[in-house]
Design a protein that fits this description.
binds magnesium ion, single chain, alpha+beta, 10 strands, 2 domains, 8 helices, Phosphorylase Kinase, domain 1, binds adenosine-5'-diphosphate, 5-stranded antiparallel beta sheet, Transferase(Phosphotransferase), domain 1
Length: 245
Amino acid sequence: MHSLPQLQNIPKYHNLFIQKIYHSKKNMVAYVLLNGKPRILKRFAPGYRTNFTTEATTLTTASSNLSIPTLFEKDEKNHVLTLGYISGENMCDLLNDPKVTLQEKNRLMHLLSTWFIEFHTFFKTEDYNLIHGDATLRNFLFSTRIWGLDFEETRKGQPLEDIATLCASLLTTNPFNATYKYDLCTTFIRSYLRTTSYTQSNIANEIAYAVIQKIPYRPTEETNLRNLAEHVKNHQFLSKKGPNF
Ligand SMILES: Nc1ncnc2c1ncn2[C@@H]1O[C@H](COP(=O)(O)OP(=O)(O)O)[C@@H](O)[C@H]1O
Ligand SMILES: [Mg+2]
């Protein structure tokens, strides 16, 4: 696989200055200055051509309606997407930061639920729903609002899958299974359900399932993840009184 630095040998990426390379398992993602403009370059590995097309299609369809990056170029030959750079803080860092107050974290969860309502509503058709498909906290940034990223796994599915994946991401990032996170999940779910008619009964099972799905990627934590999934199954996410939105 070509790395991003090697792109500089291709004429259109000649005037490229790499500012930061992000940790990515599959792709090469970098914040760059391209012809003097701040951009994100996302280069897809050869086995991930479908993801390349899926992400490009989602961005093209929705970037003028939703808070997601602008797609500046879809380079089919080199499998590179050139995206607008969003200067914001990663939601994973914010929600796990002990210096950020609980009140602020609750506010962020509420804003995040609004992002999902808008995304699911925008893509809903009579026949199916489209979901983000990889709704982990690292795929969301916050500046003055929430920005969603990483649409390579966007697909047909049940919107509640995204909601459950997001809760599982919160519960399984460091600090793992912290008590305060259950209330943040409740804020998020309650806020999401305020405008939708989806059934809420299975949310605990959905979150537990999303936790179990992490085991192949985190095999050394299998026992902790299984225990957490059991705990989650028995948690009443929607029984407590909480803020109404
Ligand atoms: N448009 C963007 N603006 C700012 N940062 C971005 C942008 N796109 C991606 N990033 C950063 O790069 C990281 C990896 O990008 P992402 O699209 O999630 O690819 P992957 O998860 O497949 O590696 C993100 O978590 C985010 O921190
Ligand atoms: Mg990502």
